[in-house]
Amino acid sequence: xxxxxxxxxxxxxxxxxxxxxxxxxxxxxxxxxxxxxxxGGTGDMCEALRTGDIDxxxxxxxxxIKDIVNGNPSKIIQTYVQSPLVWGxxxxxxxxxxxxxxxxxxxxxxxxxxxxxxxMAYINAEQNDWDIETDLKFNTIQNxxxxxxxxxxxxxxxxxxxxxxxxxxxxxxxxxxxxxxxxPWPCFVIAAxxxxxxxxxxxxxxxxxxxxxxxxxxxxxxxxxxxxxxSYNLEIEDVEDxxxxxxxxxxxxxxxxxxxxxxxxxxxxxxxxxxxxEALTASL
Length: 284
Prior knowledge:
Elements: E1 2-8, H1 15-22, E2 31-37, H2 42-51, E3 56-60, H3 61-69, E4 74-81, E5 86-92, E6 107-110, H4 116-127, E7 137-140, H5 144-153, E8 158-162, H6 163-171, E9 175-182, E10 188-193, H7 194-199, H8 201-216, H9 224-232, H10 236-245, H11 255-267, H12 277-280
Helix pairs in contact: 1-8, 3-11, 9-10
């Protein structure tokens, strides 16, 4: 049996993986899949891919592109979620900030350098015509609980995180959402470290086939709204809204999209150069 260790955020996007595990779909194909949650997000998973702590990651597109360009020996092997991620822009409930423009020059909470919350702060700045050299400041807070603590002690001013996962904190009055920021490309990809690609290409093909079968049929599962709601502490209405705008993919991220993302990251000085498509992807 081939062992594959995979990492992902503990969010509703990854429920198809857990359903496939509970159905023993991987075991039936002789794959021993070990799932590891990474609440810290993309930055943590990039490091885990580098060290070999995980073989595969369900990871933000911009984050893994940045890390591969900066030396991560991994490749994108498929798009996972085709639709863009809706990042909520959050402040403390009692904050004096009322609009996104008010946040210019203030301190953003980020889970870690190279994380989605870090990179999307740059995208948000660009979309609002801020000077990325002078109008962006950061404080590392690890995860959403760290952000809440940062708001309490006044060390951060705003925080970008997936809109629906933070909705319970907005509903409870701990956070206030003052805007949204959409990723300019498909949000999640599946990446594998080069060692795994070379060692177990057939097992990775089986892995992709299994998750594609589950993601393709995910929305048609009876009462899936209730399952997501109960699993992730989300309101049914919010789950229904999320399902309407979310589309999974069963194909590799194409070259124009990869190049668009790289050009964006290069313009924002997040990456030092633009790689060839084949240096970032692997077609199994």
